[in-house]
């Protein structure tokens, strides 16, 4: 090709790209929705890509200019996204008009077994699987899982006491992270993985790998959130081949072993096996997802993804707050000891459910730490939400961290105050003003499981141990802005002594 033709072709490409972005980036202006001016290509997400802010932090900052409006338009790369924090609009999106917003727009690749999670599925397949998985989280099932969790809780207390040597500072981020991995190992996969004792176990290595953020993994997560098809085309699977094989083999081995030995355990693998047996009778192939070993592994994998950092970091944050408030910590310990006494010394399900301060502390931790910070939906039928006409295909982000910090609802929002979660206080506020687990038919399926695990952990720790500020104590925990979701930059260092 002639140099002049080459130059002309290059100019045409540049002009086409320019015109494309100019059109894309005028989306909100054309609709009269207040918006943030985007940067070329990255839209409003440049600070996340550069590691300057995590996703909830970015969304909180973007909401600030339009706080009273309750929503604004943003651009995730070139994709317009409606950012919402007005509780009434949120109610409409996640509950009232659920039929127009039933999916998250997550990628689903039939060739990638671990992408077939309840979180990612949409439409009728989601509905069918959700109804099958819901019974796995009933009170009866949680009660049956509790002894498994309690054993790991006892291991945690022993390990913390061991590392504290009667008064040293301990990094609770590391120990809690190993603890939650052991819990998931036992309740989801039926194996004792011993990460608390052995920080180099296979399970621990895999969980570390999974949560290790690389520029490629962050880019993929962001891109797949807004461009599912693009995500599927990228030359690596949802969580890379090694992770796929690890979880698939784990599930396969567990199922084989149980089928051979007829051993039954009160865990998630057992429930998935029952589901698979019942599934053989399901005669609706169009709307239901066949429960293969891959589909079973995918659901257990979500346990792994959702049940680790979310829970361990919220607990680490709570212990940090308790270390700074000895009075609250003592009241908590008294409640735990009183209820234990009244329940024959056993930390039973009934005893835990009587510990109302423990529960309020867990909720206040979730309000302030808010591990996910954002809930998303994709519009599947054009619908008016408040003053905005949301078109089919439109992505919506619900900034739950902004809602949780509204000072008209939670005065002095930065203050750790469990009394915000009494029944009377709850009755005074909008029902959508506190959403750590999302809301509506797609609310976190494991909400009660996650709360139970958190309550159990708080109870076993404050019963036996006292947490206080040590030399590396951070009253205000510094956040690692390079991680997409809340993560402490320097761990949760706390001094630990035995509680008399
Ligand atoms: C403190 C811990 C946890 C928090 C804060 C949390 C929070 C959330 C949130 C905000 C959502 C989105 C809800 C929505 O879109 O309205 C969600 C969905 C989900 N979570 Fe959790 N979660 C936690 C633990 C877990 C655990 C341990 C599991 C293990 C099974 C789990 C499984 C799921 C699943 C499968 C969904 C998708 C539900 C659906 O689409 O039907 N989560 N979670």
Automatic annotation (TrEMBL):
InterPro entries per record: Cyt_P450, Cyt_P450_CS, Cyt_P450_E_grp-IV, Cyt_P450_sf, Insect_CytP450_Detox
PROSITE patterns xref list: CYTOCHROME_P450 (PS00086)
Transmembrane segments: 6-21
Cofactor(s) recorded in Swiss-Prot or TrEMBL: heme
One of the record's GO cellular component terms: endoplasmic reticulum membrane
SUPFAM superfamilies per record: Cytochrome P450 (SSF48264)
Subcellular location, record wording: Endoplasmic reticulum membrane; Microsome membrane
Signal peptide: none
Lineage: superkingdom: Eukaryota
UniProt-annotated binding residues for heme: 444
Keywords: Endoplasmic reticulum, Heme, Iron, Membrane, Metal-binding, Microsome, Monooxygenase, Oxidoreductase, Transmembrane, Transmembrane helix
UniProt topology in membrane: Peripheral membrane protein
GO molecular function, one term: heme binding
Assigned protein family: Belongs to the cytochrome P450 family.
PANTHER family named among the record's database cross-references: CYTOCHROME P450 (PTHR24292), CYTOCHROME P450 6BS1 (PTHR24292:SF103)
Function of the molecule: May be involved in the metabolism of insect hormones and in the breakdown of synthetic insecticides.
Protein name (record): Cytochrome P450 6a2-like
Organism listed in the record: Frankliniella occidentalis
Designated gene of the protein: LOC113206239
